[in-house]
Write a structure and sequence with these properties.
The protein has 13 helices and seven strands. The chain has helices spanning 4-13, 46-54, 58-61, 67-89, 96-117, 124-133, 160-176, 182-186, 189-193, 210-217, 219-225, 260-290, 297-301; strands at residues 35-39, 42-45, 139-140, 143-152, 238-240, 243-253, 256-257. The strands form three sheets. The chain has a three-stranded antiparallel sheet. A two-stranded antiparallel ribbon has the order 1-2.
């Protein structure tokens, strides 16, 4: 029986070359190099071992320091080769699961070859240009969002005093609500406007800067809004030439000021990912066009999908799948 360390090495040796700290499986030597572990028709050579160890990360190398550790590693590689040969002798290279695994490995290798190895490096100029194009994401002024109620009473109107009393009464109702009961506050809009058909959504200012709020609702309202510090805070009645206002702070977004240097690493990864996604999509479209790819929707409509039916026993490996190409921006 193989020991746990030997099995671990066997499995690690079987991982792809992209696995960190591991080495690819050995190929049977054909009289080349210095044999370390020999077996009929092949060997693990000193030169192979040196190459594999050079490709390990420092942490993995600590596990092959002593001669005994090196022996276990070398013999584990050779044992893996023996298992491969036995699997081949039994014809398992034609097994459906093996073939499916090979297809998946080929697709992964194709993706790496076409879109990782051939990818152009992301330059500092690329990062700077992307930052400028998306600067609002990294540099933006503080913004606030309010629910705003207006009791209309133009300056000089005969009922202005009565409307002020109405605004005070609405404030008392608002203060009896839970601080975060935004829907309850917005529902007071019909009473405030005198129009019962007023939609609660009309109270929403959406996110605005202090200057935008001032331009929209006037300096009196903007000054009162500036005193609201926490989400859920409600203003006193605010008097303006248009009438009487009530405000509730519903959201706030602090000022953002992320310089290029602070986000450069993140942008490098994002640009590389977006480029890769776009390249994969274009490549997929090309392959589909070359293969005259088409789908029979009428046939799909005949497909039976019963979510209540019991799951049947598997008849083979789960097939590989790739999503549809995304539109290139």
């Amino acid at each position: 029986m193989l020991s746990v360390p030997a099995l671990s090495v066997l499995l690690l040796a079987g991982c792809g070359k992209d696995s960190p700290g591991t080495a690819p499986p050995p190929q049977a030597a054909q009289g080349k190099g210095t044999p370390v572990v020999s077996f009929e028709g092949g060997a693990v050579t000193l030169e192979q071992l040196q190459t594999y160890i050079s490709q390990m990360n420092p942490a993995a190398r600590t596990r092959v320091q002593s001669v005994e550790q090196r022996r276990e590693y070398a013999e584990g590689l050779a044992r893996f080769e023996l298992f491969v040969r036995e699997a081949q002798r039994q014809g398992l290279e034609k097994d459906p699961e093996v073939l499916e695994a090979a297809k998946r490995a080929m697709v992964q290798r194709l993706l790496h070859k076409e879109f990782e190895e051939k990818a152009a490096p992301v330059t500092p100029e690329d990062i700077a240009a992307y930052y400028e194009m998306n600067k609002a994401e990294f540099v933006s002024p503080a913004r606030w969002r309010y629910s705003h109620l207006l009791v209309p009473a133009p300056q000089g109107s005969a009922d202005r005093a009565a409307k002020k009393k109405l605004a005070q009464a609405l404030l008392e109702k608002a203060r009896k609500l839970q601080p975060l009961d935004f829907d309850g506050f917005d529902a007071l809009g019909g009473e405030a406007s005198g129009n019962p058909d007023t939609k609660p959504a009309s109270a929403d200012t959406h996110l605005v800067t202090a200057e935008e709020l001032k331009e929209r609702l006037g300096p009196e309202v903007a000054a009162a809004a500036g005193k609201l510090q926490r989400v859920g805070d409600t203003s006193a009645v605010v008097e303006s030439p248009k009438g009487f206002h009530l405000l509730k702070l519903t959201d706030l977004r602090p000022e953002r000021n992320q310089p290029l240097d602070a986000v450069s690493s993140m942008l490098r990864s994002r640009i590389a990912r977006e480029r890769r996604d776009a390249s994969v999509s274009a490549y997929t479209v090309k392959l589909q066009e070359q293969a005259q790819f088409k789908t029979d929707t009428a046939a799909l409509e005949k497909l039976q999908v019963n979510i209540q039916a019991p799951q049947e026993a598997s008849s083979g490996p789960v097939p590989g799948y790739l999503p549809a190409p995304q539109p290139v921006r």
